[in-house]
Amino acid sequence: MRILLYAGKGGVGKTSVAAATGVLAARRGLNTLVMSLDPAHSLSDAFDLDRTLMDKNHGAPIGVGERLFIQELDIYEEISRYWGEVHKYISVLLSASGIEDVLAEELAIVPGMEEIAALLYVNQYAKENAYDLLILDCAPTAESIRFISLPKTLEWYMKKIFRVERKLIGYMRPVAKRFSDVPLPEDEYFASIERLSQRLQGVDRLLTDPETTSVRLVTNLEKMVLRETQRAFMFFSLHELSIDAVVINRVFPDEAQVGFMESRQKSQKAYIDLAKTYFHPVPLFEVPFYSSEILGHDALTDLGDQLFKDRNPADIFYTNRTCEFSATNGTHRAKIHLPFTQKAEVDLSKVGEELIIRVGNIKRNIILPRSFVPLETEKARLIGDYLVIDFGGNHE
Ligand SMILES: Nc1ncnc2c1ncn2[C@@H]1O[C@H](COP(=O)(O)OP(=O)(O)O)[C@@H](O)[C@H]1O
Ligand SMILES: [Mg+2]
User: Which of 37, 69, 82, 384 has a CA 20 to 30 Å removed from the CA of 110?
Assistant: First the structure.
C-alpha cells in the first residue's frame, strides 16, 4: 500500500488537493482511501456530501465513487473502541480535581489521541493491504508534526518509562489510597496502553520508508505560508519522512489581472522563484486559482488533471532525503542533498535560524532545527551527492 500525506498551513488547500488526488488515482484504477486527520473535517464537504450521511457512518470509510472511499475519524467512536480505560482514568482524575463530569470527559480527550487513532488505522490498512493507495489529509502543520512524531515518542515512553511506572504504581496503590483522594490508575489502564502500543508496532517504519510514504507539502504564494512550508520541510526531514513534491496552490493564470489582483499576480511571480530556491530539487506542482470554490466530483476531477496532467498521482516523484540532521558525540551535522555540484562552487552562510547555500546561481534556504540555531557552521565538505556540514562553537 502506498501512503501519501498532504500537509501544510490551514486553508492552503490540503483537503481539496488530497481529494482531487484520490479522484484521479481511483480513475486510474487504484483502490483508494482518502482519510481526514483534521478534527475540523471538511473532506465530505469537498465531495459535497450530505453531512448526516457522514454522521450516521460513525467514522468508517464510505464509498464516494468507483474504487474511491473517504474516511473522517470520529474521535468519540475511537475512544470507545481503543481508549476506554485510558479515557476513563483521565476523566476520573479530572473529576477528582473538582472539574465537572461533562467537562472532565471532554478534557480527557488529550492531544495526541486523535493522531494515535489515525496511526492505528494506517497500520491496520497497511497490514491488511486494504487499499492500493491511502491518502492522508492532514490537520494544519503543528498537529501533523505531532502525528508523525508520535510513533517515536511512544516507543521511547514504552521502553523507558512505561514498565517502571506500571511497577511503581503497583507498589504505591495500597499505600496511596490511605493518604490521598487522587486515584491511581488501575492495572487495566496500563494493559490498555500496552495493547495500543502493540497495535502501533511497525507504523514508524511505514512512515519513514520512502518507497511507501511520501509527504506532499501544499503551499500558497504568500510570504507567511511559504515560511511555514519551509519549516514543515525541515520538520518532516528531521523525522526522516521523504518529501516527494511541493504543491503550489492558487496560482494566478498567466493572463493579465486587473485591479488589486494585478499586484498579487506580480508578487506571486517573485514568490515562485523563491519557492524554487527553498525546495529545490523537490519537484513543484502548480494548481491554478479557480474562480469558484472546489466542490464536488467534477471540480475535483478538474483539479486533479490540472495538478498531475498525465502523470500518475501515486508515483514517487522524488526519493532522496533532501536534508538530514544528526547530533552524535556532540557534533551537530547537517547532510544536504546537492547533486551535480563541485566544492568550489558552494558558498555557505547562516543567518539566524536559516542556512543559506549558494551553488552558482542556485540558492537554497534551509530552516534549521532548534538545537542548531545557536551554533556556527564549522566544516563543510562534499561527500558524493551530499554536502555535509558540521556545526559547533556556541557563539553566544
Ligand atoms: N486552487 C483553488 N482555487 C480556488 N479555491 C480553492 C483552491 N484550492 C482550494 N480552494 C478553496 O479554498 C478553501 C480551503 O481549501 P481546503 O482544501 O479546505 O484547505 P485546507 O484543507 O488546507 O484547510 C475551500 O473552500 C476550497 O474550495
Ligand atoms: Mg482541510
Answer: 69
Which runs of E-coded beta strand occur in 264-322?
Answer: 284-288
**Cα 285 to ligand 1 centre (Å):** 16
pTM score above 0.90 = no
Looking from the CA of residue 16, the nearest atom of ligand 1 is 17
125 and 11 together in one domain:
yes
Closest-CA residue, ligand 1 atom 9, reads: 13
DSSP-derived 3-state class of residue 315: coil
The protein residue with its alpha carbon nearest to ligand 1, atom 23, reads: 11
- Check whether residue 15 and residue 46 sit in a common domain: yes
Q: Tell me, what's the pLDDT at 90?
A: 78
Q: Which residue do the cell numbers 551553488 mark?
A: 359
Grid coordinates representing 13?
488547500
Residues with Cβ within 8 Å of 199's Cβ and at least 6 positions away in sequence, in order, are 120, 123, 124
- What are the tens digits of pLDDT across the range 91-129? 777 777 778 878 877 777 776 777 888 889 999 999 999
β strands within 153-221, DSSP E:
213-220
Q: Which residue has the cell 501512503?
A: 3
Using a CB cutoff of 5 Å, list residues around ligand 2, an ion: 14-15, 38, 42
3-state secondary structure of 285: strand
Would you report the helix, strand and coil content of the chain in percent, each value rounded to 5? 45, 25, 30
- Structural domain boundaries enclosing 354: 323-392
Domains identified in the chain, total number: 3
Residues 307-335 have a mean pLDDT of 90
State if residue 230 touches ligand 1 by the CB under 6 angstroms criterion. Answer: no
Give Rg (Cα) of the chain: 23
Are both 174 and 267 inside the same structural domain? no
Shortest-distance Cα residue to atom 11 of ligand 1: 293
Q: Is the pLDDT of residue 19 over 90?
A: yes
Q: Which ligand is nearest to the CA of 296?
A: 1
